[in-house]
Each structure stands twice: as C-alpha cells, then as structure tokens.
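User: Sequence recovery, please. Input:
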C-alpha cells in the first residue's frame, strides 16, 4: 500500500509540474498576465488530470479561446484517465505496454470510433465547417466525455440543438464506457469493456471450434492474465448494474417530462461522474430527480459492490445490536 501510494504521488507530481508549466506558457501567449496564467494553468491541469472538469470561469475552457490550451488539456485528461499501473510501466521503460494493454487498446478503439461517428454526424450540418472546428467542438467533447473529464467547448443546449440524435447518442455511449480502472475516471471502465468483448469473442470461437482446438483465453493487463468465467462474470455484473441504474434514471427523468435524448445524455453523465450537461441538471429540476442523481453519482463512483458490502455490514451490525439489547 505504501509503495503504491508513493508511486501515485510521484507520477502525479511530475505531471503537475509539467502540466502547470505548459499551460502557464500557453496562457501567457493567450494574453493572461503571469499570475493569472499560473493559477489558471494550475487549476486547469488539476481538473484535467483528475478528470474533474471544473474550471475557474463559468465559460469553462471556452474562456481561453485557445486551440493550444484545448490540445494541452486533451493530452492531460487522457493521461489522467489511464491506469496508474500503466503510467508506472511506461515510465519505468516498458513502453510496449501501452500497445499491449487491454485498457489502452480498448480506449483507442472506442475513442476513435466515437470521434469518427460524431464527426460524421456533424460535418454535414454546416455548423462546423473546418477540420479545426470539428476537432475543437466535436472531437474535443467526445474525448472529454469518454475520459469522464467534463470539460466543454460548447454550451449545454448546443448538444441538444446542434448535435442531433447520432451526436448525442455517441456522447452518451462514451460517457457510459468511461476511462480506465485504477484511475481518476468514472464509467463502466475500459478494462471491463475489453474483458466483456474478449469474452464474447472467446465464446463464439468455442461454439464454432472443435473441443480439441479450444485453448485458454488470455488478456494483457500489465501482465498476461487468464480470462476465466469468474473474471468475465465480475466485469459483466458491474456493467449490468451500471446499465440498470442508467435505465432507471432515464425512465424517471422522462416521467417528469424531459425528452428521452436529454434524459439519456444527463443520466450517462451522472452515472459516470462526467459533469457534462445537456440542460437537465439545474436548481429548478424536481427534487426526486435530484435525490436519484445524488445516489447514482455515489453508486457510479464507488462501483456498487463496495456500497452493497457496506450496507450489508451495517445491517449485520444493526441486527447484532438489536439482539444484544433486546435479547
């Protein structure tokens, strides 16, 4: 535990110095004075690295009107969404780990597909006409959603009014998938998505192959690991619980008059602790939805089983207390 804690702190502090310095320079080039450039750089790095998405101004990263600032942010919130074990492996010289690890491979596949679909959906609308605007307004938000960071380069209602059905569906899906396990990101996690996909493919191969050709299925996550039924089941259970929580939230939100598109987007953001909004989350929304969103954020962040275990321990403790005092 001590060793892991030291590694996480060292990695984070190295990136803290690098990120703040680079963002400070970019801020100076954008017209900020030195003090503001430093503090804005510090806060934006912290929110990117921790995939928190908070910014010093109400306009979020739109405040800076800087392509360079946005690109730097993308780099650090993608890094922040990766497993700390992956960081350690790469920083200690095992650079091939990035190309072999099931989480990084899963992220590259889903991020590429999500970005391509979103660009396809929006490039013909006439709103984003250049490659630069497509990156800044479309790809940026897809990656921010996928890593569960929550930085936005468009206003909330622009998602509903400009992105159309396919664009909003893409953001909803990537928010549900989320980042890596053992990182600051939320969501179902790329590790589980990779395990589920690999498990499904393995089952298909078993069905079409003879018994003699069946082999042990493995996946690479820092080291080669056997994909057994227990591993697949654990990943599938967490994914299923996320989907159930998401579905209940969508039904509840639509019951109060919101469109299913708005409800799905908002609930995906809530489930993965993303922080993006399409306009549902505000002070005037019904109290029942507020309470459910709070519960969903808590369950989504702590991934159900730890909460279920805590509740179970509390119930057992309560029963023992009742027996002790009323026996």
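Assistant: Recovered sequence (327 residues):
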């Amino acid at each position: 535990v001590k060793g892991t804690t030291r590694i996480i702190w060292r990695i984070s502090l190295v990136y803290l110095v690098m990120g703040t310095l680079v963002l400070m320079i970019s801020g100076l080039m954008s017209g900020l004075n030195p003090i503001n450039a430093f503090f804005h750089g510090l806060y934006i790095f912290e929110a990117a690295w921790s995939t928190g998405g908070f910014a010093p101004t109400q306009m979020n990263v739109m405040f800076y009107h800087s392509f360079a600032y946005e690109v730097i942010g993308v780099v650090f919130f993608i890094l922040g969404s990766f497993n700390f074990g992956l960081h350690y492996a790469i920083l200690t010289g095992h650079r091939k780990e990035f190309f072999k690890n099931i989480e990084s491979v899963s992220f590259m596949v889903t991020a590429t597909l999500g970005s391509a679909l979103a660009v396809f959906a929006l490039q013909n609308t006439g709103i984003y006409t250049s490659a630069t605007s497509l990156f800044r307004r479309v790809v940026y938000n897809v990656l921010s959603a996928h890593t569960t960071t929550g930085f936005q380069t468009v206003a909330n209602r622009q998602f509903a009014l400009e992105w159309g059905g396919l664009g909003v569906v893409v953001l909803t899906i990537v928010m549900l998938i989320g980042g890596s396990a053992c990182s600051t990101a939320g969501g179902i996690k790329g590790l589980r998505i990779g395990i589920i996909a690999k498990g499904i493919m393995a089952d298909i191969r078993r069905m079409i192959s003879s018994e003699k050709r069946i082999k042990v299925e493995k996946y690479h996550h820092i080291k080669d690991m056997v994909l057994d039924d227990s591993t697949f089941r654990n990943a599938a259970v967490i994914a299923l619980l996320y989907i159930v929580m998401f579905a209940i939230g969508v039904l509840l939100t639509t019951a109060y008059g919101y469109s299913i598109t708005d409800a799905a987007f908002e609930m995906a953001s809530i489930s993965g602790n993303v922080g993006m909004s399409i306009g549902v989350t505000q002070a005037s929304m019904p109290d029942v939805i507020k309470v459910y969103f709070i519960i969903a954020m808590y369950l989504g962040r702590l991934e159900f089983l730890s909460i279920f275990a805590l509740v179970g321990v509390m119930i057992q403790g309560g029963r023992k207390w009742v027996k002790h005092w009323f026996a």
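The CA atoms of residues 199 and 232 lie 6 Å apart.
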